[in-house]
UniProtKB/TrEMBL annotation:
Enzyme class: hydrolase
GO CC field: signal recognition particle, endoplasmic reticulum targeting
Catalytic reaction annotation: GTP + H2O = GDP + phosphate + H(+)
Domain of life: Eukaryota
Gene Ontology MF annotations: 7S RNA binding; GTP binding; GTPase activity
Coverage span on the entire protein: 81 to 377 of 569
Protein name (record): signal-recognition-particle GTPase
Alphabetical keyword list: GTP-binding, Hydrolase, Nucleotide-binding, Ribonucleoprotein, RNA-binding, Signal recognition particle
Family: Belongs to the GTP-binding SRP family. SRP54 subfamily.
Taxonomic lineage from the root: Eukaryota, Viridiplantae, Streptophyta, Embryophyta, Tracheophyta
Amino acid sequence: AEMFGQLTSGLETAWNKLKGEEVLTKENILEPMKDIRRALLEADVSLPVVRRFVQSVSDQAVGTGLIRGVKPDQQLVKIVRDELVQLMGGEVSELVFAKSKPTVILLAGLQGVGKTTVSAKLALYLKKQGKSCMLIAGDVYRPAAIDQLVILGEQVGVPVYAAGNAIKPAEIAKQGLQEAKKKNVDVVIMDTAGRLQIDKTLMDELKDVKRVLNPTEVLLVVDAMTGQEAAALVTTFNVEIGITGAILTKLDGDSRGGAALSVKEVSGKPIKLVGRGERMEDLEPFYPDRMAGRVLG
Ligand code: GDP
C-alpha cells in the first residue's frame, strides 16, 4: 500500500461530510474533526500530537467564517494542509556545514534501520553538490558492516577509513578524523554501531565518539516503519547524546506515515533527509509542504 494511502482516504471522509454546507460552524465540524482524529491515529501519529493538531484545526475552522467562492470543505482542506506543513517543521531543514573544513556528520541509530546504507547515500548526495567526502567505518559490532561500507564507498566513489573492529569506535573516529584532515576533505561522515535496542553501552560509546569528533551534525537514522516509536527514539537520543536532526528511511515501504508526522513535534528535532529506496541515489531532503501534499492525495 502507498504510504499515507489510508490516511488520505480517512481525511476524505471528513471533507465529504461538509458537502452542501454554506459555512464552517462549531456544530458541522464536529463529525469531520472526529474523522480527522481517527485517520491520524490510524496512521500511527502519536496521541498528544493528534490532540493538539485537532484542537488547532478546529479553532481555525470555526474562526474562518464565510469566504466567497471557497466552499467549507475546501477551507478545511486548506487549514489541515497548512497545519500539516507546520507540524512537520514548516521549512526544509538544511544540513549545516562547518565554517572550517572538515564538516563532521555523525550518524547514529538502532541496528537495521539503514544507517550504513544512508552513510554512503549521504556521501553520494554531498558529492553531487561538489563536496569531497570521506566515510569512517565505525560499526564495530555488526558482522560485515565495515566490509559493507567499504563496498558501498567504492560504489559511490568515496574513500572509506576502516580500521577493523578490534579497536574502540572513539579511537577509530580519532584516526579517521586525522586522515580526513590530511586529505583535506570537505565532509566526513561516520557510521556507528547500532543495537537492537537502546542500551547504556551504545549511548556511552556514542558520547565518546561525539566528544572526539565534535560534529556539526549528529543525525539519528530512524526507520519509518516504526511509526510513532520513531519520534520517541529521536527524543531519547536527543536527551542522551544531543542530536541535530533525523533521517527517515524506508519511506518507500508501506509505513502509515506516523513517523514523518510525529518526529518534529514530539522531539523538537527536524527530519532533514529521507531515504526512499535501496539504491544509492534514493536520498533526498525532507520537504514538509510536499509531504503534506502527499497526505492530502
Ligand atoms: P544498518 O544496520 O542500520 O546499518 O542497516 P543497513 O544499512 O545495512 O540497511 C538494512 C537494510 O535496509 C538493507 O537491506 C538496506 O538495503 C535496506 N534499506 C536501507 N534504507 C532503505 C530504504 O530507504 N528503503 C528500502 N526499501 N530499504 C532500505
